[in-house]
Amino acid sequence: MIVAVLDASALLAWLQDEPGADIVQDLLDTGSACSAVNYAEVAQKVRTRGGNWALTADLMASYGLQIEPATADDAVVAAALWKDDRQVSLADRFCLATAHRLGVPAWTTDRAWGSSDTVKQLR
Questions:
Q1: Helix crossing, 90-102 with 36-48: angle to 10°?
Q2: Adjacent-strand bridge partners of 121
Q3: 76, 87 in Cβ contact below 8 A?
Q4: Phi, psi at residue 94, to the nearest 5°?
Q5: How many beta carbons lie within 10 A of that of residue 107, not counting itself?
Q6: Distance between alpha carbon 14 and the CA centroid of its chain, in Å?
Q7: 115-123: long-range contacts (C-beta < 8 A, 24 or more apart)?
Q8: Alpha carbon distance 51, 68 (integer Å)
C-alpha cells in the first residue's frame, strides 16, 4: 500500500543521509512511490555528482519504492498547478499530481511548496 509520494529532494535527502532522511526511511518502510519524472531527476542528480546510478536504483528498489508512470491526467494536473509567482518546477508539479491521483501526501524538502494536509515538509 502506498502511503506517500516522494519528490526528488526527499529521495536525495535520504540517499545523502541529510536531515529528514529518517522520515523518508520510515515512509519507504511503510510504502512509498515516486513519479517517473522525479525518478529521472534523481537519476540525473546522482549521475551529475558522479554517483553509481545502477547501485542507487537497486537500493531504492530494494526498499520497494514504486515508480509511478506519468499519465496524461497527471500532465493536465501538473500544467494546471503552474503559477507565475510560484517557484515550483514541472517535476515538482508532477509529484503533486501523482500524489493527488494516489490520494496520499507528497513529501519534499522544498519550502516553496508550503505545507498542508497534502504537502508534507521533511525539515
A1: 140
A2: 108
A3: no
A4: -65, -35
A5: 26
A6: 11
A7: 120/4, 122/9, 122/10, 122/13, 122/19, 122/20, 122/23, 122/24, 123/13, 123/19, 123/20
A8: 23
CA dihedral 106, 9, 17, 48 (to 10 degrees): 150
CA dist., res. 105 & res. 4, Å (int): 5
Query: Was domain 4-121 assigned CATH 3.40.50.11900?
Result: no
The domain locations on the chain are 4-121
Report yes or no on whether pTM surpasses 0.70: yes
What is the grid cell recorded at 58? Answer: 537497486
What are 63-84's pLDDT values in tens digits?
999 999 999 999 999 999 887 5
Q: With bands split at pLDDT 50, 70 and 90, how would you rate the model's confidence at 27? A: very high
